[in-house]
Amino acid sequence: MAKRKGVHPLVSAATLAPLAIGLLSPKAPHTFPTLRTAHHMVALAPSCTLPFDAIAVHHPIDDSCGPSGSESDDTTARAQQNQAKNNFCAQGAPVNIDFEVLHQLQADAESQGITFGSDGQIPPDRSVLQNLPTKAGPLGEGTVARLAAFVIKAHYSNVGKGESVNCKLGDKESNDVHIVLGEASNHDDECSSVTAEMSPHFRPDTWDPSVLTDHNEHLYRFTGQIFFDASHRPCSGGKGSPKRSAIWELHPVYGVDICNDPGNNCAVDNDQNWVALSDFVGTGAPPSETRLWVPDEFTSRFGIVADRRTPRRWAATKPERGWRSQAKGEQIF
To answer: With 0-12 CB in 10 A as exposed, 13-18 as middle and 19+ as buried, what is 196?
Structure first.
């Protein structure tokens, strides 16, 4: 079960009630029943166990931004693209791919006349993005895949203005982590790169841009859903926004491994020398620690500053003695 972060200030107690939003299998159309509140909020509640459930963290956006993001009509092309971005329930054993496979998918899309390049060119029928020929077999959007690559850079995307899939929220916690991946090294030309995206929904603490770049001398292995980001286009003439060689990406990321061999002797199709990133850097809390997210009235009373972007960690004493803040040591109750 995901650990819970602070409650978004716009979310009332009523909007925290469970809202059943089913995420469908990758081969079915991306359609979702929605249950909206008076504030047009809708929770994201995957119908499957999250692929990274053991380290998942509950964020405020999980209660306020559903599968279609900021789109009020769930049937529009952009709403369906947002639903695809929020698919945490793609099924099947991961297919091992490389950069060439993503380039083949890019060529397939172009040869079939699938439109892309802006929000106005998002294909209205996403079924055309499935079962495309590649050297790894027929693949497409909704296929679970694994890719080994170096991290060139990583950052929170769309901070300030937000984006449709994340309900235009502007803070870091509510936006994707955009990861630029290099095939040969961590300083490859970005126009030769491909992309992985970590959704803000249920994102683990260790899936952080600084963690990725602090260890980017290591080879990484990303597992996730193959996704066609039709709002963008590949580099042309050395220019792109963002720069990349294909708009097929892993989005959302389902898992991250890091090569623990000094010589990066790791292969995408062999688990030897791979370690889960959360194990490599630590989850941030000993197994015996329990976290408690304390309401704002308590944080105000005891002079603790609540930063919604950074998790507050709490250490448990014996139950009869209550809970104490690690920062100040006061007993809360």
So the answer is: buried
